[in-house]
Design goal:
Length: about 900
C-alpha cells in the first residue's frame, strides 16, 4: 500500500477524518472545494465533513489492513460493541437466526442498532420472522467505509436507532477489474477460511457502474478440540459435568430414587444402578462446534446514470445465498412412562424415563439455505439555488429453509411403547422399542421413529422515500441548511415450522407458526443553523435540530426530535453535544413469535445450596421453597419457554452525549477525543434470561421478587428440578446506561514511512435494568455470562500502522476488561474474568501498482478464552471471547 496521505484519508473518512477506525474529528472549512456530501446522522448535505454526534469510521484502507473478511468481525471488535449478538461461535443462536451475524452497539441489543446500506434500511436475515439484518450479506469487497454513529438517531432514520446507527457505504469510483483471494487456517489445522472476490468498475461522463461477485467458505471447528468437556466446580475443583440426558437413560422410581441404565452399547441390557451424574452424564462437546461452517456467494451491482444534466438514475441490486450448518448433540427423549409389565423394564416397577439420549443414530445436523434479495431504484436531481431532491424505492426479501435430521416423532415413540399395537417380531409394522440401555434401540425402531425436520420462512421489507435538501436563507454566520422528507415502510415476517414441530410431537424445540406485519408512515424535518462565527473563542457555533412524526398501524403515532450543538472554540478545541429522543416498536418475532421451548444453558442457584454459608439468603430461600437439602442441578441446561408476546408496547428512549475534540498545535498530527453518553430506555422490551431471573429471585428477601412467581418458573415438588422456566420478552420498567468513549489519533513519520496510531476505548460506567416500576435494579455493568453476553467496564482497541512505497504493516491489540459472572458467588472458580488481550498483525507488500500480497496472524499469542461459571458454550462466553486461538492467513490482490 502506498504512503498514507493525510488529505486522502480526510476525504475518504468523510465524517471521521484522519484515519480509518477513528472518532469523527477532522475539520474542513467551507470554500475548500470539497464536494458536498451527506454525513451519517444527518440528511443535510454539507461541505463540513464532520457530524455532531460521536462516530467511528472504518475506511476501506483500514479494512484491508486488518485482513478481516466479514462485516461481522469488523464491527464486533469495536469497543462500543458489547452484549449478545449472533456470530459463528454462537452454537445456540436463537430466534430462527442460525448462521446470521449482528452488531450490538453499547450492548443494548441488536434490535436497537439500526443497520443501513447507503443510508437505507436492509431486510432482516435468518429463516423467517427475524428482527435484524445479516451483516454478512454485505461483501467486504464493495465497502468504501462503515460509519458507526454512537447516539440516538430516530428523528433522522426512524425506529430502532436507539443505541446508534451502522451505515455501510459502498464503493462508487472504482475503475478496472480487481481480483483477490484469501486463505486462512488455525494453528490446530482446522477452521479453514477461504474467500475470493471479483470486482469490476466503469466510470465516465454518463455515470458509473460497479459489480462484485464474492465467494466465502469457512470450515467447522469442533468444540471438543478447544474444550474437551463442559466444566463445573465441584468441591473447589473444575470437573466435567456434562448433561443429565444420559445415553443409557435416567429414570425415576416411585420412591423418588433416580436410577440409570446400562451405559455401554452391547453391554448388559438389564443392568441399572443409582444415578450418579459424575459417572453417567453426557459430554456434549464432541457433538457441538466452537465455530460453525458457512458457505456464501454474493452478487451485487451499483450504478448511476445521468438521465439529464440535472437528473440521475441510481440502482442497487444485491443477492446472497448462504448455506450454513450446526452440529448438535443427539436428541433427547423425556418423561416416558414405562410400566413394570413392559418386558424391556428390568426394575419390576412403574418408572418414568426422565431423559434418554438417542445416541444410536448419532448427532443431529442442523442446516439452513437462505436467499437474500435487495433492490433499490431511485432518482436524484438538482433544483435551483443548490437544492437537491431524491426519491427511492427499496425492496428486500429473505427466504429460507432450515431443519435437522435425526428428529424423533414422539407419537411414534409412544407407539413403540404401546404393547397393544407394537410387536417384537421381525418385520413388524410397528416395532416395539427398548429405550432402557445404550445401544438397545434397533435399526427398525430408529427407522420408524426418526425423520428429517424442515421449516420455511422469510422476511420482506418495502419502503418508498422522498427527500429534499438545500439552503433556506443566509445568516451572518452562514447558510441555514434544511432537509425534509416522507417515508412509507412495510415490514412482514413469517415462519412455518415443520407440521410435527407445530403439533409438539417432535423431540426438538416446539414452535408455533409466525406471521405478522406492520406499516409506518413518517415525515421528518431537519435544520442546521449557523449561529455565530469568526468571534473570539467562537470560530464557529452551529445548532442542528430534527423532528420526526411516525404513524404505525399497530401502535398509533409517535414524535421524536434531536438537538445538536457544534462549537469550534479555537483551532485546537471543538465541543459537541446532542440530545435525542428515540423509540422502537416491537418487531414481528417479538410480537407474533409463537411460543417455543428450548434447552438453554442455565444456572440454578439452589444447586448445592446446603453448602452455602449459614445465613445465606439464597440458602434460606431454597429451603423455604421446598428444594431438597441435597439438591444438585442435574445438567447445565433447563427447558425454557421463549417466543413472542402480543401484549408488548413500544419502548422509548432519551440519549444525551457531550464531548470534546482537542488537536494541540504543539503536537502535529495528534487528535484527542472524549465523549460522555447517557441513555435511558423506558418500557424497554427485553427477554430476561432464565439464569438471571432465578438469581434475582433467590437473592430477594423472602422470595419477594416478582420473578419468583409461577408465571416465571416452577419446580417439581418431589425432586426440586425446575420444570418450567419462561424467558419471553416483556416491557421492563427502565434501562439506564452511562459511560465515556475515548479516542486518540496520532499521525507521524518514521523515516520514509507514514505512521499512525488509532486508539479507541469505551468505559461503561453504568448499565442497570429495572424490571418494573419500584423493583430493585439488576446491574449489568461489569458483569458477563448467563446468556447476556459481556459488559466489562473497559473495552479498547488500538491499531498501529506503517505504510511506505512498497511495505505496509498493521499491529492491533483488542482489550476486553475484567468482568464478574452474573450468576456465580464470590470465591467460585470463574467468578471474575481477567483482562484479556488479543494481538493481531498483518504485513503487506506491493509488488507493483497492480499486485499485492498480505500475510497476517490473528490472536498472535494464542490467548485462551477465560472460564466463566455461567458459560454459554465451551466454558466461556462465546459472544465475547475468541475460541479459535492463533490463526494465520494470506491474501493476494491483483488489479487490472
Amino acid at each position: 500500500m502506498k504512503r498514507l496521505s493525510g488529505k486522502l484519508l480526510v476525504a475518504t473518512a468523510l465524517s471521521a477524518g484522519v484515519l480509518a477506525g477513528t472518532p469523527a474529528v477532522a475539520q474542513q472549512q467551507p470554500g475548500t472545494g470539497l464536494e458536498e456530501i451527506v454525513v451519517t446522522g444527518s440528511r443535510i448535505k454539507r461541505e463540513d465533513i464532520t457530524g455532531v454526534g460521536p462516530a467511528t469510521v472504518l475506511t476501506n484502507e483500514f479494512i484491508q489492513s486488518t485482513g478481516i473478511a466479514s462485516v461481522e468481525t469488523l464491527l464486533q471488535r469495536l469497543p462500543s460493541s458489547a452484549g449478545f449478538a449472533g456470530n459463528q461461535t454462537s452454537a445456540y443462536w436463537t430466534s430462527n437466526g442460525w448462521g446470521t451475524a449482528q452488531v450490538n452497539l453499547r450492548g443494548l441489543g441488536a434490535n436497537r442498532t439500526l443497520v443501513l446500506l447507503n443510508g437505507r434500511r436492509i431486510v432482516p436475515g435468518g429463516t423467517g420472522a427475524n428482527s435484524s439484518p445479516d451483516l454478512n450479506t454485505i461483501p467486504v469487497s464493495i465497502i468504501e467505509r462503515i460509519d458507526v454513529l454512537k447516539d440516538g438517531a430516530s428523528a433522522i432514520y426512524g425506529a430502532d436507532a436507539v443505541a446508534g446507527v451502522v451505515n455501510v457505504i459502498t464503493r462508487d469510483d472504482f475503475e478496472g477489474v480487481e481480483v483477490s483471494a484469501k486463505y486462512g487456517i488455525t494453528e490446530e489445522g482446522d477452521g479453514e477460511e477461504k474467500s475470493a472476490d471479483l470486482t469490476w468498475g466503469l466510470s465516465g461522463e454518463k455515470g458509473n457502474f460497479i459489480a462484485s461477485l464474492t465467494y466465502y467458505k469457512s470450515e467447522p471447528v469442533n468444540m471438543a478440540d478447544r474444550e474437551p468437556c463442559g466444566l463445573g466446580e465441584v468441591d473447589g475443583e473444575l470437573v466435567c459435568v456434562g448433561s443429565s440426558a444420559t445415553i443409557g437413560g435416567r429414570a425415576l422410581l416411585p420412591t423418588g430414587q433416580r436410577i440409570n441404565f446400562n451405559q455401554s452399547p452391547g453391554g448388559n441390557g438389564d443392568f441399572f444402578e443409582p444415578y450418579n451424574g459424575a459417572i453417567h452424564n453426557f459430554n456434549s462437546n464432541p457433538y457441538l462446534n466452537a465455530v460453525n461452517p458457512i458457505e456464501r456467494i454474493s452478487a451485487s451491482a451499483f450504478g448511476n446514470i445521468n438521465v439529464t444534466d440535472d437528473v440521475k438514475l441510481f440502482t442497487e441490486l444485491m443477492f446472497t445465498n448462504r448455506h450454513s450448518a450446526q452440529l448438535a448433540t443427539p436428541g433427547t427423549l423425556r418423561n416416558l412412562s414405562i410400566p413394570a409389565t413392559n418386558p424391556t423394564n428390568p426394575t419390576g416397577q412403574d418408572i418414568i424415563l426422565e431423559q434418554r439420549r438417542l445416541m444410536e443414530p448419532g448427532p443431529r445436523d442442523f442446516f439452513q439455505d437462505v436467499d437474500t434479495w435487495r433492490t433499490v431504484i431511485g432518482l436524484t436531481g438538482d433544483l435551483a439555488n443548490g437544492w437537491t431532491w431524491e426519491t427511492a424505492f427499496n425492496w428486500g426479501r429473505t427466504t429460507g429453509i432450515d431443519g435437522s435430521n435425526n428428529i424423533a416423532n414422539l407419537d411414534r415413540v409412544s407407539d413403540t411403547l404401546d404393547l397393544d399395537i407394537c410387536s417384537f417380531a421381525a418385520g413388524a409394522a410397528i416395532p416395539c422399542g427398548d429405550y432402557l440401555g445404550a445401544g438397545d434401540l434397533s435399526p427398525e425402531v430408529l427407522d420408524y421413529i426418526l425423520f428429517t425436520m424442515r421449516d420455511s420462512g422469510g422476511n420482506e421489507q418495502i419502503s418508498g422515500t422522498f427527500d429534499i435538501t438545500g439552503s433556506l436563507f443566509a445568516l451572518p454566520a452562514g447558510d441555514v441548511g434544511f432537509a425534509a422528507g416522507v417515508v412509507y415502510r412495510e415490514e412482514k415476517g413469517w415462519r412455518d415450522p415443520d407440521p410435527l414441530t407445530v403439533l409438539g410431537v417432535a423431540n426438538t424445540n416446539q414452535q408455533d407458526p409466525i406471521s405478522g406485519k406492520f406499516t409506518a408512515k413518517e415525515a421528518y424535518v431537519e435544520l442546521a443553523v449557523p449561529v455565530l462565527s469568526n468571534l473570539p473563542f467562537v470560530q464557529r457555533l452551529g445548532v442542528n435540530a430534527a423532528a420526526r412524526y411516525s404513524d404505525y398501524d399497530l401502535f398509533g403515532s409517535d414524535e421524536n426530535y434531536k438537538l445538536g450543538l457544534d462549537w469550534q472554540v479555537i483551532d485546537e478545541v471543538r465541543l459537541r453535544a446532542t440530545y435525542a429522543t428515540a423509540f422502537r416498536i416491537p418487531n414481528v418475532p417479538e410480537l407474533f413469535g409463537g411460543v417455543a421451548e428450548g434447552n438453554l444453558t442455565t444456572t440454578d442457584p439452589c444447586s448445592g445450596y446446603a453448602s452455602l454459608p449459614a445465613g445465606s439468603v439464597v440458602a434460606q430461600n431454597c429451603a423455604a421453597s421446598g428444594v431438597p437439602a441435597g439438591f444438585q442441578q442435574l445438567g447445565n441446561t433447563i427447558l425454557t419457554t421463549v417466543g413472542g408476546n402480543e401484549d408488548l408496547d413500544p419502548e422509548s428512549a432519551e440519549s444525551f452525549t457531550v464531548g470534546a475534540v482537542y488537536q494541540p498545535a504543539f503536537v502535529e498530527g495528534l487528535t484527542l477525543t472524549v465523549d460522555y453518553f447517557d441513555i435511558t430506555i423506558k418500557d424497554a422490551i427485553r427477554a430476561i434470561p432464565g439464569s438471571t431471573k432465578l438469581a434475582v429471585c433467590y437473592e430477594s428477601a423472602g422470595l419477594s421478587h416478582p420473578f419468583c412467581g409461577p408465571e416465571h418458573f416452577t419446580r417439581n415438588a418431589l425432586t426440586g428440578d425446575i420444570n418450567f422456566l419462561s424467558a419471553q420478552p416483556v416491557n421492563t420498567g427502565r434501562e439506564e446506561m452511562k459511560g465515556v468513549d475515548f479516542g486518540l489519533i496520532y499521525e507521524f513519520s518514521i523515516g520514509e514511512f507514514a505512521a499512525a496510531i488509532d486508539w479507541n476505548t469505551t468505559y461503561l460506567d453504568t448499565y442497570t435494568i429495572t424490571p418494573f416500576q419500584g423493583a430493585e435494579e439488576i446491574v449489568f455493568d461489569g458483569f458477563i455470562g448467563g446468556g447476556n453476553g459481556g459488559f466489562p467496564h473497559w473495552r479498547s482497541n488500538v491499531n498501529a500502522t506503517l505504510a511506505g512505497d512498497r511495505w505496509s504493516g498493521t499491529y492491533s491489540v483488542q482489550w476486553i476488561g475484567k468482568a464478574t459472572d452474573f450468576n456465580a458467588s464470590e470465591g467460585d472458580i470463574g467468578y471474575r474474568t481477567p483482562n484479556v488481550f488479543y494481538h493481531n498483525v498483518q504485513v503487506g507488500y506491493d509488488f507493483n501498482d497492480q499486485a499485492r500480497i498480505a500475510v497476517g496472524v490473528d490472536n498472535l499469542f494464542n490467548e485462551d478464552a477465560p472460564f466463566i461459571q455461567s458459560w454459554t458454550d465451551a466454558n466461556t462466553d462465546t459472544m465475547t471471547y475468541d475460541l479459535l486461538g492463533r490463526r494465520g492467513y494470506v491474501r493476494l490482490t491483483y488489479t487490472f
